[in-house]
Each structure stands twice: as C-alpha cells, then as structure tokens.
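Progress against Task 2.4 (sequence-to-structure conversion) is shown through the following example record, which the project officer requested during the mid-term review.
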Amino acid sequence: MVLTAALAVLLSGCEWLRPFEEVCENRLGPTIIDVVATPISHGVDLGKSTAELTAMGAPSTGRQVLGLTQTSLKWSASYGSRGLTRRPGSRHCMRPAISVKLSFEPMTVFVGREQAEGSCAFNITMDHERRHVRVYERFLDEVAPRMQAALAAHFGNRIFYFDSEAEAERHVQASLRDFLAPLVDNSMKDVAQRQAAVDTPEEYFRLDGFQQACSS
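Structure tokens generated for the chain above:
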C-alpha cells in the first residue's frame, strides 16, 4: 500500500468576500476516481524440491505438489486534494481526485526441480500453472472496474470541508486505507475460490495420467 498526495491552492482576490461554500462549489472540479490494473508479469523458480513445494502449498492434503503459483493482490493510491484553503481561519474544502493501481505482485511460478526444464513432466506442470496465471489475469481485469465503482459510490461528488489541508490529507488517506483494505481482502478470497476451481479432483486425475504417460 502506497499513498501520495498533492497540494491545494489558496483563495485570492474577491473570493475572500464571497461565502466559502459558494467559492468551493464554483471552483472545485468533480470527484475523479480511476482504478487501473497493472499487467501481470511473473517469475519462474525451478530451484525448490517437490517436498518443499508440498510444504508450501498443501502440507495437510497428503498430495505431492509438483508446481505452485504464489502471489498477492497489492494496491497503491495517489490523489490530488483538488482543494481550496482560506486563511486566516484555516478552512479547507476539497473533492478528491484518486488514482489507484492494482497488481498481483510479486508472482512466482514454482516447478519442482525434479522435473527437468523442457521435459514432458515439466511441460505438463507448467501448462497447469499457466492456467492459474490466466485466472489471475482475468480476475484483475474484472476487479479493477468493480473497485472503481465502489470507490465512486463511497466518495460520491460531495464536497468535504476541513479545518486544514493537513486534516483533509489525513482523512483521504485513512478513508482510502480503511475502505480498500477489506475490498482487497475479499478479492483475495474470491480469487482463491477461482483458483480452487482449477485444482479439481478431475484435473488432478488428468495430470496424474499425463505424468504417468511421461514416465512410461
């Protein structure tokens, strides 16, 4: 999670004589919410044994793990306060302009070192792990617009008023953090269910058959 902010501008001229709320209504642009998904890239690790991957991925199932894809959903946010400050008196109004980036990183595809790179067994395992990568790719494309809609509904187009620009910054940071954190947690639960749908008993039966054919 990363948060950055931009500064507001001060009132000047005849704006001092007008009601602050009127100036804010006239000067502030609309709320902007933009959520983008960073294209997925992944590394490949061929250095761990099947026993190590089993301990990492499924220690209690009794099934050997020949390949494993690991990642987590990360987010970073930047915002411009799009605010106006009247001093003295320290009144500040703002509508946020928020940009959020979502990414699955780091993402690593592990294949047990007992499977020589380029071998029949290696290719079968790698093809299965690529299915997991594609699930992450599709999910990331879907979750970005969902989060954008949720943030737009959360902030709306209303004007926020504070005693200072610093208070406004703290509010936006806390609001983003508190709102996005559970969304990201729920998204990880959602994508975990989708990944579980890849690792069905039928899929394991199919893989076992291919692996046996490789060794025959």
